[in-house]
Amino acid sequence: KKVEPEKDEYVIASDSAFAPFEFQNEENEYIGIDVDLMKRAAEMQGFNVTFNHIGFSGAVQAVEGDQADGMIAGMSITDEREETFDFSDPYFESGIQLAVEEGNDDDITSYEDLEGKTVGAKVGTESADFLDENEDEYGFNVKLYDDADQLYEAVRVDAIDALMDDYPVIGYSMAQGQELETPIERESGGEYGFAVKKGESPELLEMFNEALQEMQRTGEYDQIISTYIDDSG
Ligand code: GLN
Questions:
Q1: CA 172 to ligand 1 centroid distance, Å
Q2: What is the ipTM of this complex?
Q3: Quick one: average pLDDT of 30-39?
Q4: What pLDDT is attached to residue 124?
Q5: Which domain holds residue 217?
Q6: Closest atom, ligand 1, to C-alpha of 148
């Protein structure tokens, strides 16, 4: 079904570095699952998008402050966010996980082992919420970073003992050669959705949902996923 856009152009906010969902290639162009899904949806439904890759919490604020019409940023659909956002149909099943530098998994094999240690996450994320909720119980310290580059670098240089992030993003960074291990089973959860400000731009959500359904029907969705995530391992 074809839905009529109500704007000449929709501004879509996104994360600045969240591979394989949005990241810069060697030509400094943004590519990734979120980018491809949204661009294809725009082509299929005949609407125009401009991406604004301002970081995760920046994107949340941009939509809330009417500086963007929507956001696609590996954003987990949560009850709390549903109070201020309307979400599309879920398009990816995710979950959060703890990662430590390779070799550190001898000391850290459970959350209990994090006592007195410092764990990092990105500000405003599910992982940050999880750490805040559990820091007293397990006695670790939480350090929040604005973007993934800083977070992953902090583990590399031992500024923090562990990080918490969405498992496909940890997996991608391991596939790219960062020496990480994931000693604790991941927390189930987080389905990703495209989001608009609550009550606004229903046509934009509908266009995305229509296109997503069509991409899932034709196999194009699977193709986009397998471009970025190697399922063979
Ligand atoms: N899925 C996580 C969340 O929604 C992280 C998203 C991100 O860092 N881009 O909080």
A1: 15
A2: 0.98
A3: 98
A4: 97
A5: 10-91+193-228
A6: 8
- For the chain, the straight-line distance linking the first and the last C-alpha, in angstroms and rounded, comes to 37
pLDDT at position 173 over 50 = yes
In the chain, how many domains are there?
Answer: 2
Q: Which of 56, 88, 187 to mutate to test the pocket of ligand 1 (most atoms within 8 A of CB)?
A: 56
Q: Which residues are registered as beta bridge partners of 23?
A: 31
Residue 1 CA, distance from chain mean position: 28
Per the domain annotation, does 59 fall within a domain? yes
Q: Which residue has the tokens 């109500």?
A: 6
Do 75 and 139 have their domain in common? no
Residue 149's Cβ-count burial label (10 Å; 0-12, 13-18, 19+) is exposed
Question: E-strand spans in 35-149?
Answer: 49-53, 70-71, 85-87, 92-101, 118-122, 141-145
Q: Which pLDDT value is given to residue 105?
A: 60
**Residues 21, 66 share a domain:** yes
**pTM listed for this prediction:** 0.96
Is position 209 within any domain? yes
For the stretch 8-28, pLDDT in tens is 999 999 999 999 999 999 999
